């Protein structure tokens, strides 16, 4: 079993070349079920369950990414959000719920300064687990951080106290991931 998990982890790559459709065997409900399961099962500090996510597809995905592109002045800066708008089938938007973090800070003041980091760590786990799982389902995906722009574009569609953490943009892979190099980075056993 662990060999299968390690294979999925190694197979997760940044894939920018996407077609704006889902592979035939997948529906957006499958994507939703995958992300829902991960949001449920990824651990959080004190089991506080402050991860949130929404999935954008169709007209809403296009409108949000069009708004992000329009909010950026430089032609070079617009390129990635425009490619997400035109080439991705959808995007998972990850959030952390500030009310949960603030509640932890009130209840456990000794750890107060650590809780924002803990929220970020758990969100990162949800992001990368989702990336791994969606690619294992046949999607290509890449991770973006247009957080403030996405928050502005979503407006009242999401609660004010949800902080945008990342966007996982997905579609049918149109080309494989680029070559990746690795440093020598041994994990030693100290006895
Ligand atoms: C925490 C984190 C933040 C990242 N932010 C971005 C980003 O904002 N834009 C982007 O294009 N890629 C982003 N990436 C993708 C990395 O550049 C990529 O994962 C790395 O180069 C390794 O390549 P791989 O994903 O193909 O293994 C991010 C990855 C991680 C883990």
Automatic annotation (TrEMBL):
Q: What cofactors does the UniProt entry give for this protein?
A: FMN
Tell where it localizes.
Answer: Cytoplasm; Nucleus
* Keyword Oxidoreductase among UniProt keywords: yes
InterPro entries in the record: Frm2/Hbn1, Nitroreductase, Nitroreductase-like
GO cellular component terms, A-Z: cytoplasm; nucleus
Predominantly, its location class is cytoplasm
What are the alphabetically sorted keywords of the record? Cytoplasm, Nucleus, Oxidoreductase
**Can you tell me which family this protein belongs to?**
Belongs to the nitroreductase family.
Full protein name: Nitroreductase domain-containing protein
